[in-house]
Design goal:
The structure holds two protein chains of two kinds. Chain A has three helices and no strands. Chain B is an all-alpha fold. Chain B is built from ten helices and no strands. The longest helix of chain B is centred in the middle third of the chain and has 25 residues. Chain B is globular and about 55 Å long. Classes of the chains: A mainly alpha, B mainly alpha. Chains A and B meet through helix 1, helix 2 and helix 3 of A and helix 2, helix 3, helix 7, helix 8 and helix 10 of B.
């Protein structure tokens, strides 16, 4: 297996750590979907009001 | 026969964490962009614009959808940049292509260095390494996601691994 040399093992450990950090701060599918839906509603509302920074408003959701 | 909505939802739920990791990689670790891409990908899956044909595993198929969606977002962002002067005049706010600082702040030094080094690799090499090491796919599965031959995937993998090693540990540069 190509992962099984010194470089491969080192990289596997680094990626595993990164994955653990990302997973620790992640949210489950249901929460993600609900947050995205709320963000989309906000964006839509701001799209109808020209001049309002939609992405800035959406970022607080 | 395709999957039912409930089966698709279950598949998305099961692979959500891995999908977010893959979307982050496809978007250069910009969390806001990755979340947009993931949301668009999920919508495509659920409304039938992307259909699972069972020619590969659900996960490799889903990763392919995410990868193509990220490419579409990049193309749209490039077009928006062309229209930037007009958009500014119109009062719109566009997201900068740079990664969001909040993402970097929450990572350890080791992971921050890894992400910075990954950003310096050519896209194919970065994607292949992510799929093999982060997502723990085989090279064959990674090749399926990327839409390349296994020989090409192996080449991206070998070159990327060597380059990443050099970037992370410059003293060991040949």
């Amino acid at each position: 297996m190509t992962r099984e040399d010194e470089t491969g093992r080192d990289l596997a450990a680094r990626f595993a750590r990164l994955r653990a950090e990302e997973n620790a701060r992640g949210e489950d599918y249901a929460r993600f979907s609900a947050r995205m839906a709320a963000r989309e509603r906000l964006r839509e509302r701001h799209r109808r009001r020209p001049g309002v920074p939609a992405l800035a408003a959406a970022a607080v959701v | 026969m395709g999957l039912t909505r409930a089966e698709l939802e279950a598949g998305l739920e099961e692979h959500h964490a891995a999908s977010l990791g893959w979307a982050l990689s496809c978007c250069g670790w910009d969390r806001g962009e990755a979340e947009d891409v993931l949301q668009s990908s999920y919508l495509k899956v659920l409304d039938g614009r992307a259909r699972f044909g069972a020619r590969s595993s659900f996960r490799t198929w889903l990763f392919g959808v995410i990868r193509r969606t990220a490419a579409e977002h990049r193309r749209r962002a490039a077009l928006r940049r062309l229209w930037l002067p007009l958009a500014r005049a119109d009062g719109a706010v566009l997201r900068d292509a740079a990664p969001d600082p909040a993402s970097a702040l929450e990572r350890t030094e080791t992971s921050t260095r890894l992400v910075a080094a990954l950003r310096m690799l050519p896209r194919r090499q970065r994607e292949t390494l992510h799929l093999v090491f982060y997502e723990e796919l085989t090279l064959r599965e990674a090749a399926e996601v990327l839409g390349v031959t296994i020989g090409a995937a192996r080449q991206h993998y070998d070159r990327g691994k060597r380059r990443l090693r050099e970037l992370l540990d410059p003293e060991n540069r040949p």
